[in-house]
Design brief:
The chain starts with a strand and ends in a 6-residue tail after the last strand. It has seven helices and five strands; from the N terminus they run βααβααβααβαβ. It is α/β, with parallel strands linked by helices. It has helices at 8-16, 21-27, 37-48, 53-66, 76-88, 95-107, 116-119; strands at 4-6, 33-36, 68-70, 110-112, 127-128.
Length: 134
């Protein structure tokens, strides 16, 4: 599969119209842009803790209606391998970031994230930055 899976931070920038995420998404065919079900869960959680709950609950629904949301797949071994690799380097990375990476690795996608420092340390993960501050 060719394409990009957007990290939760990139989806947030997309909905806030900050950086240049809008431009990158507009220039990329919709069938090459994916979301992890982990990012959907993170966005719902963020919406429930916001001052505009109903508005922000629409954002994950917009993703689901426009792009493909991917399940984790066969993730347990990949999760353990990536987490072990990071631990050997003395790095602590959140479990949700590891699960997004696992999804990317499983489907052969590039992670789009502002957190290239962490994702770039994960074995088998390609990542790019679309959040160019203007």
């Amino acid at each position: 599969m060719k394409g990009f899976i957007l990290d939760s931070d990139t989806w947030i920038e997309f909905f806030r119209h900050r950086g240049s995420v809008d431009k990158h998404i507009a220039a990329t065919p919709a069938e090459q842009i994916f979301a992890s079900e982990v990012s959907i869960a993170e966005l719902i959680y963020g919406a429930l803790h916001s001052n505009a709950v109903e508005k922000h609950l629409q954002e994950p629904k917009e993703i689901e209606s426009t792009f493909t949301v991917l399940p984790l797949g066969d993730w347990m071994h990949d999760y353990a391998e990536i987490r072990q690799s990071l631990a050997c380097k003395g790095l602590r990375v959140g479990d949700f970031d590891i699960l997004i990476a696992v999804t990317a690795r499983h489907y052969g996608l590039t992670v789009v994230t502002h957190n290239t420092k962490h994702f770039g340390q994960m074995p088998g993960i390609q990542c790019v930055e679309w959040i160019e501050k203007q």
